[in-house]
Amino acid sequence: MNTPTSDRVALVTGGSGGIGRAVAQRLAEDGIPVAVHYSGNRAKAEQTVAAITASGGRALAVGGDVADEDAMRAAFETVGAAFGGLDVVVNTAGIMILAPVETFDLAELDRMHRTNIRGTFVVSQQAARTVRPGGAIINFSTSVVRTQFPEYGAYVASKAAVEAMTLVLARELRGRDITVNAVAPGPTATPLFLRGKDEDTVDRLAKAAPLERLGRPEDIAETVAFLAGPARWINGQVLYANGGLA
């Protein structure tokens, strides 16, 4: 039997800012207690928690490196102890480093892939062991897997891996009544996306989609809320939330 939305509990990794914060706040609007995960900035996570509780929701901050299995096991246990279980895991945590393949720093490649690939794998593994029937696991890819912009090669490689493991996990959880999907945002106005881009580049990307604007964190959060709640017949899919970019 599916867990009613009002009885669900969620964990959002990378929930201290950008898309993660918007997701945490959107899920809280549905009455879902939310654990806001952070890696290095507890203060920002606590700000998200404060915003949720000020609006009448329930939230707590949990820390840890997503690529560290012991830290994530402890985080999942903390959420379960605080809220009585776990139903929705949204893994927004990730980093983006851009450079041509020819000149890409391999140390940076390892750092990015440790968070984006190993981190997603570790969180997905803990989610598969923990999430209750009727729950949802939601990972994050990128629309650049399709659009293939120059300088995104290393980042896209990490996110293509996320898509692959997400779709396999959906099949591995057969019979558990747990959906597993990925969201692939297009250009979205977050600090991660805007960092290092000049105004002309941002304007060009904003006009690339038929809706002729950048995505907003709230747009992506709405997609996540759909997958986390009513979208029980969407499973093993990658949803491209990009305003029609590709």
Descriptive overview:
- The protein is of the alpha/beta class.
- It has one domain (5-241): NAD(P)-binding Rossmann-like Domain (Rossmann fold, 3-Layer(aba) Sandwich).
- Helix content is 47%, strand content 14%.
- The chain contains 9 helices and 7 strands, in the order βαβαβαβαβααβαααβ.
- The protein has a 7-stranded parallel beta sheet, with helices on both faces.
- α4 (106-130) links the parallel β4 and β5.
- α1 (18-29) packs parallel to α2 (42-54), α3 (69-83) packs parallel to α4 and α4 packs parallel to α6.
- The longest helix has 25 residues, at 106-130.
- The chain starts with 9 loop residues before the first strand and ends in a 5-residue tail after the last strand.
- The model has no long low-confidence stretch (mean pLDDT 94).
Keywords:
246 residues; alpha/beta; Rossmann fold; 14% strand
Instruction: Report the CATH C-level class.
Output: Alpha Beta
Might you state the CATH topology name? Rossmann fold
**How large is the radius of gyration?**
17 Å
Question: For the terminal residues, how far apart are their CA atoms?
Answer: 36 Å
The CATH architecture assignment turns out to be 3-Layer(aba) Sandwich
Poorly predicted residue ranges: none
Helical content, roughly? 40-55%
Q: What is the overall shape?
A: globular
What value does the average pLDDT take? Answer: 94
- Output the structural class: alpha/beta
N-to-C order of helices and strands: EHEHEHEHEHHEHHHE
How would you sum up the major sheet? Answer: 7 strands, parallel
Number of domains: 1
Q: Output the number of helix runs.
A: 9
Looking across the biggest beta sheet, what order are the strands in? 3-2-1-4-5-6-7
